[in-house]
Design goal:
Elements lengths: L2 H30 L2 H17 L5 H11 L2 H18 L12 H22 L8 H166 L5 H26 L6 H85 L6 H116 L6 H106 L4 H17 L5
Helix pairs in contact: 1-2, 1-3, 1-5, 1-6, 4-5, 4-6, 6-8, 6-9, 6-10, 7-8, 8-9, 8-10, 8-11, 9-10, 10-11
Keywords: Coiled coil
């Protein structure tokens, strides 16, 4: 529905409402108020008719409303009902099967009836003014116009969507037409192909009939040949059954031998495992013993001789191995390897014995080293005690020096008290005091001499201990040198024996590979022989040739027996080679572990030796410092002794004043020139 049709429909409906309303109002105005009111109503009615007048375009709006979809009419009626409910809240629309226009008219009539009913219920004095009705009608019309504009825009959008859908449908129609044309062409092609296939089927049926006839003839010929072949195959099957029985018996025997071989192999593996466990335990024990022995090892002339003998044994072993490898042939490789491995085992056993002897000697050296270490500890403890004694002597010397100083101070005080005059009593006291002082000096000198002798004896003992420590230091350095040499010998041994063992294991692996290749060649020959026998049985079906088959069977048995013997020999060789390989690997691992442990213990021993040398150097420095202090104290004591002797001689003179003067000077000397600690 367009905007223009909706506008006209609204105008038309409003004209109907206004006409009915004006008719009623005119009758009421004439009845109630007379002519002036009638003129006013007519003027207003003329204005409304000039603004809202029905036109011929209402029919077009009616047609548009008929052609419009139901959704727009339903929206229109909902808005119309909403507006009518503004007048009457209890307004309801009665829907019928009539056209939308008649339904709108019915709605308007119902609204007008409601208005008239309310107007009849209003009091007589209240008459609504025409201007208010006019403005309300205008507002309703404006609202309806806005609604119609919105509906018109919606219809425009719907028309655009319909046009797009029409375009899409037209495109789809074109596609369908093209598809129809293509389907027609395909149908024509299918018809042509069906015709061709029918022709081909006819030709094929004719050919199949001819082939069937040929096949029937050939089938008859084949049946005849089959009968002849059945006779031949029956004879071949008899021979084949005999050979199969023979081959089955051979296979059963072979399987039994394989089972026995596997059992023997498992037993040997269990034995090898037990041996390996025992050897590993022995190796662990030997490693522990070597570790303990290397910690306390000291090289002397006997160890040098043992190492020299070991080197000669290794050289002889290497020469024997090189000679055996040079002069051996390919047929006797396995036996020569056995001999070489047995020699290696003997040499290793000899080396073990030598190592056991070395172990015993090293245990003795360990005991000696422990004694040396204990003596060093004792020396350290004695040096510490002597140091404490020296400190005590220092303290005693200090106390004695203080006592001498106090005695000199008393003498000076007494001399100062005697300056005023001479007193015989004081002289007697002074002479008595001098005698006591001389006696004290004599006793002090004796004690000093005794201490000097003790210090000299202690110094001599310290010198002797220093010499012993130097000798022990030299012994430790020699031990370190012997350890380094033993380390170097072990490195040479590892570089010599382990590569040899690796080369021997590689050579054994090559021999095993050759043996496996020969075994595979024998197996292939056996398979080829079996295939030839089967072909011979198929080709020869007459009974006259059975002796040749028997000969071939006998030859096959002989060859199978030889193959089994060779397999048994190879199995034994493999077991022996595996065992020898494991032994060589265990010896190699043992040597590698021993070398590593020896290096670790050498490093630890070197660190201990360095720490011991540092401690000895510190102790030597402390001893030297103590000796220097003791010598300085001895010099001080000697100087003090000389001063006391001089003072004693001076005090024995009769002139007391001169003696006083002479005593003052040594006092000052003793106070000023005494060495400070």
């Amino acid at each position: 529905m367009s905007h223009y049709s909706r506008d006209k429909l609204g105008k038309f409906s409003y004209d109907g409402i206004s006409g009915l309303r004006n008719a009623n109002e005119s009758s009421s105005f004439y009845s109630r108020r007379g002519a002036p009111n009638q003129l006013k109503a007519q003027v207003l009615q003329g204005g409304l008719l000039r603004q809202v007048s029905p036109s011929s375009k209402a029919l077009a709006s009616y047609k548009a409303s008929i052609m419009s979809p139901k959704s727009s009419s339903s929206d229109f009626f909902t808005t119309l009902v909403a507006q009518m409910r503004r007048i009457d809240e209890n307004f309801t629309l009665e829907w019928t099967d009539e056209t939308p226009l008649t339904q709108a008219l019915n709605c308007l009539i119902q609204a007008i009836n409601g208005i008239e009913h309310e107007r009849s219920q209003c009091p007589d004095g209240y008459i609504p003014q025409e201007g208010e009705e006019y403005y309300e009608a205008n507002e309703n019309l404006a609202h309806f116009e806005e609604l119609l504009k919105a509906k018109e825009e919606k219809l425009k959008n719907d028309e655009a969507s319909l046009s797009r859908e029409k375009q899409i449908l037209s495109n789809e129609k074109d596609k369908i037409k093209r598809l129809k044309d293509h389907c027609l062409t395909l149908e024509k092609e299918l018809r042509e192909q069906k015709a061709e296939l029918d022709a081909r089927e006819k030709e094929d049926n004719e050919k199949i009939n001819l082939i069937k006839e040929k096949l029937e003839r050939e089938h008859q010929e084949i049946d005849e040949k089959r009968r002849a072949l059945d006779r031949d195959t029956h004879e071949i099957e008899v021979i084949k059954a005999k050979l199969e029985d023979f081959s089955n018996s051979l296979i059963a025997e072979r399987e039994e031998l394989e089972i026995e071989r596997s059992k023997i192999f498992e037993k040997t593996l269990e034995i090898d495992k037990e041996k390996w466990k025992i050897e590993s335990e022995k190796a662990i024990l030997e490693e522990k013993l070597i570790i303990n022995n290397h910690l306390k090892e000291k090289i002397d002339e006997e160890l040098i001789q043992i190492e020299y003998e070991r080197a000669e044994i290794l050289k002889s072993k290497i020469d024997l191995q090189s000679d055996s490898l040079k002069h051996s042939e390919y047929a006797n490789d396995v036996e020569s390897e056995k001999i070489a491995l047995s020699e290696l085992q003997n040499n290793l056993y000899n080396e073990k014995l030598a190592l056991a002897e070395d172990r015993e000697r090293l245990i003795q050296e360990e005991e000696r080293i422990t004694q040396i270490l204990n003596e060093l500890e004792d020396e350290k403890r004695k040096i510490f005690e002597e140091r404490n004694n020296v400190e005590k002597d220092k303290q005693a010397v200090k106390e004695e020096r203080e006592a001498v100083d106090e005695a000199w101070d008393e003498i000076e005080e007494k001399q100062g008290s005697q300056t005023g005059g001479k007193n015989p009593k004081n002289e007697d006291d002074y002479s008595h005091m001098l005698e006591e002082l001389q006696n004290q000096i004599i006793s002090y000198n004796k004690e000093v001499e005794a201490r000097e002798k003790d210090l000299e004896t202690k110094n001599l003992s310290l010198m002797q201990r220093e010499e012993e420590l130097e000798r022990r230091n030299e012994d430790i350095q020699a031990l370190e040198f012997s350890l380094l040499r033993a380390k170097r010998d072990l490195e040479e041994l590892s570089l010599g024996t382990i590569p040899e063992l690796e080369t021997q294991s590689q050579h054994i692996q090559q021999i095993l590979a050759d043996l496996l290749a020969k075994r595979s060649e024998v197996d292939t020959g056996y398979n080829q022989l079996q295939a030839k026998i089967v072909e011979f049985e198929r080709s020869k079906s007459s009974g006259a040739q059975s002796p040749q088959i028997q000969k071939l069977a006998d030859e096959l048995e002989v060859k199978m027996h030889k193959i089994k013997e060779r397999e048994d020999e190879l199995g034994e060789l493999e077991i022996e080679l595996e065992r020898e390989k494991k032994e060589n690997l265990s010896h190699a691992l043992f040597l590698q572990r021993a070398q590593k442990e020896f290096e670790i213990e050498c490093a630890k021993k070197e660190a201990e030796i360095q720490a011991a040398t540092k401690k000895l150097e510190k102790l030597q420095a402390k001893l030297e410092s103590a000796i220097m202090l003791m010598s300085s104290k001895e010099n001080q004591l000697m100087n003090l002794k000389e001063i006391l002797i001089d003072e004693r001689n001076k005090l024995a003179s009769p002139d007391l004043n001169d003696s006083r003067y002479r005593i003052a000077s040594p006092n000052s000397f003793s106070m000023n020139d005494t060495p400070k600690e």
